[in-house]
Design goal:
6-stranded parallel beta sheet, single chain, alpha/beta, about 375 residues, 13 helices
Amino acid sequence: MKPTILFIMHMPPPVHGAAMMGKYIHDSRVINDTFECHYINLALAKDINDIGKGGIGKLIVYLRKQIQIARAVRKIKPQLCYLTANTKGGAFYKDCCTLFLLKCLRQKIAVHFHNKGVKSREDRRPDKWLYKLFFKNIRIILLAPPLYNDIRKFAEPKQIAYCPNGIPQSTPLNFAEKNNSRFKLLFLSNMLKAKGVWDLIDALNIVKNDGYSFHCDCIGKWSDITESEFRQRVKEKNLEEYIQAHGAKYGEEKDVFLNRTDTFILPTHDECFPLTLLEAMEQSLPCISTNEGGIPGIIEEGKTGFIVEKHSPQQLAEKIEYLIDHPMICAEMGKAGKEKFQREFTLEKFENRMKDILKECIASYKK
């Protein structure tokens, strides 16, 4: 008889990393064949711009979901409850209530974190008290070993399992050959200040002033950076001929940009394990990103790309100029990134890692 797991997690919409991984779990034949799976979608927001906002409507939906969770636990009697949780702020308080409900129902719990922020609030009241209660007697799934430092004060290493994300391998498409007259760069993420969009523009201004020829495409849904703000900043730097924003793109439309790009850039300020880096590596692109979250576990410095410090347009510009000046090294880094993706970051690898971790979590509670 298969063990029963109640998955309480985020699924699209809106589209973001945690929601996409929730969808992959929900759709996974490997996981559904191994366990008797039941799913409750925790998502309250319908759009990326709606995340973090309150309202009576959301409160009502949230309370209904808590009732749904309690009823599901009583009905199916799961061997494990899997919960994706936030680490700070109002979202953490909301997820605290869900976790404490599960504890009151005497459930065995595995919490999967797709973000970080505990360390920034670990000495504040009431957060430090809540964290002590939250992390007690649960199993924890993190995306990469560097992220353990964020929760070190409240969680012991024996509670932790590591499961890097993975993504489906795309179907090869017959795109036109790259036009190598200008070096092509790509930024792919939601258009948020925290993704380092303004740092990217400042860096590209340096590269332009140093006399380099390039073009940068920016793909992503407009969020706390609006299209008009973006265009104004580009105009101020005289970068209209060098940078173009296209809004959100999905599926084959997105793949067209990945296919015709030379280098991928994500100068993010706050990240755990960006799926866009995996998408870029699958397309044999060298990646430039920041020393943030689990990114050092994705990019091998000097081998599959470069890691720069946050808020450092000058460092970013230097790495871009290096790759423009060294096209053979650029191609070699892209090839190495593709190989690393196939070894570590396919959806199949993720599914099997998750399956083994969930089995181990259930077994550990039986000891």
